[in-house]
């Protein structure tokens, strides 16, 4: 039996007792005093993170709530572990911590450098404001300086092309571990610049590198309630069914047949659709939380015709069909459910990305789809269309390297 989400209004009976808890009062600070305390917190965090900078950076020992202390040379790990007792100082530390986390999410490295740069900008900015400069003029100046710095960095950028160069960069990022550096270099050589590399726990005593079919796109889970791995804040589904829908899922009625099919087959489900309205989303979340249904919904990548093409690419990879009204398809058609749903060996979804590993379609069918994309690239005269087609081809052919 599937649970439906519904809103209920609680009635106050005479016998009920309600306890009201007042939120803690807010402390309000202004001007130089507030900036100086925030800067002190920023300095405290940056000093702790700064010792990890560079290939000869030192380790930091972090106390854990349970178990032995953690020893790390990763800047963002150090930053995330810091909470200061003084509320104003902690406010400054949290602002810089956000810089490190954002850098880690986008670039995957360089968090210590980003932290120290943020501290320097904050420190010099405080000096300028204390000397009488208008904060908005200061902001415009920083933005202009960023443009100049980016232009200079682009002019001196060196592209990493050889396997040896990749090995050297990877070894430094792995804290000097040449074994891991070699694994990463080999993985990049197999999947290419546009491929995807993922890390999973092995079942042997040695490190292994495996190239598997897979597809990754830049869309994450619609609701954090779908998360199955709370420590890493991601959804992990094993051998899930994959539902592809080119419209919004707007009602509970339309999605119930799919959910009932998944429950009957004791499976898990990845839904990729244009969007999911609140009523249908609430039903999915309730069934996940109350019945343990393994489910995740993500928005389809791209826009317009490009979105439809991407959905068909995913359908080819997973062996499913795109449910679309143009061909008379319907989510409520229970008889077509086995043919409609695709399959994958595993799916990993974060707040920003979705990775589908080893779909259920034969390689010959995937190769045929890739040939169709290549033909489209030759026929189009639009640089934008060629770029999008190249991205699709890279996703289809790059594969996924699993370490």
UniProtKB/TrEMBL annotation:
Keywords: Chaperone, Stress response. One of its GO terms (biological process) is protein refolding. NCBIfam families: PRK00013.1 (NF000592), PRK12849.1 (NF009487), PRK12850.1 (NF009488), PRK12851.1 (NF009489). The keyword Chaperone applies. Coiled coil: none annotated. Signal peptide: none annotated. GO terms for molecular function: ATP binding; ATP-dependent protein folding chaperone. This is Heat shock protein 60. InterPro entries: Cpn60/GroEL (IPR001844), Cpn60/GroEL/TCP-1 (IPR002423), GroEL-like_apical_dom_sf (IPR027409), GROEL-like_equatorial_sf (IPR027413), TCP-1-like_intermed_sf (IPR027410).
């Amino acid at each position: 039996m599937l649970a439906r989400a519904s809103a209920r209004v609680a009635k106050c009976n005479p016998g009920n007792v309600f306890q009201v808890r007042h939120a803690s009062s807010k402390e309000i600070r202004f001007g130089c005093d507030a900036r100086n305390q925030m800067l002190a917190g920023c300095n405290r965090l940056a000093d702790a993170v700064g010792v990890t900078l560079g290939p000869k950076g030192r380790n930091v020992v972090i106390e854990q709530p349970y178990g032995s202390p953690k020893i790390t040379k990763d800047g963002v790990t150090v930053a995330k572990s810091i909470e200061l007792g003084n509320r104003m100082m902690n406010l400054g530390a949290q602002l810089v911590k956000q810089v490190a986390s954002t850098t880690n999410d986008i670039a995957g490295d360089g968090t210590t450098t980003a932290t120290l740069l943020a501290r320097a900008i904050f420190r010099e900015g405080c000096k300028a404001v204390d000397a009488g400069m208008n904060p908005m003029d200061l902001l415009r100046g920083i933005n202009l300086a960023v443009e100049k710095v980016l232009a200079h960095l682009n002019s001196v950028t060196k592209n990493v092309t050889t396997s040896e160069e990749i090995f050297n960069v990877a070894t430094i990022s792995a804290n000097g571990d040449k074994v891991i550096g070699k694994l990463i270099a080999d993985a990049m050589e197999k999947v290419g610049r546009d491929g995807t590399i993922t890390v999973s726990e092995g079942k042997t005593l040695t490190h292994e590198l495996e190239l598997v079919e897979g597809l990754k796109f830049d869309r994450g889970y619609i609701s954090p309630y779908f998360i199955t791995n709370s420590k890493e804040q991601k959804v992990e589904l094993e051998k899930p069914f994959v539902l592809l829908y080119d419209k919004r899922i707007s009602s509970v009625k339309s999605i119930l047949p799919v959910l009932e099919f998944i429950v009957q087959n004791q499976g898990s489900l990845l839904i990729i659709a244009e969007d999911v309205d609140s009523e249908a989303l609430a039903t999915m979340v309730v069934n996940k939380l109350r019945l343990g249904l393994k489910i995740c919904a993500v928005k389809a990548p791209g826009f317009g015709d490009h979105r439809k093409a991407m959905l068909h690419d995913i359908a080819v990879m997973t062996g499913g069909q795109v449910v679309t009204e143009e061909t008379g398809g319907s989510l409520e058609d229970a008889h077509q459910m086995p043919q409609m749903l695709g399959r994958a060996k595993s799916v990993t979804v974060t707040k920003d990305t979705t990775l589908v590993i080893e779909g259920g379609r034969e390689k010959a069918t995937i190769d045929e789809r890739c040939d169709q994309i290549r033909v489209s690239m030759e026929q189009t005269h639009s640089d934008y269309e060629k770029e999008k087609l190249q991205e699709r081809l890279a996703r289809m052919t790059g594969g996924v390297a699993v370490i």
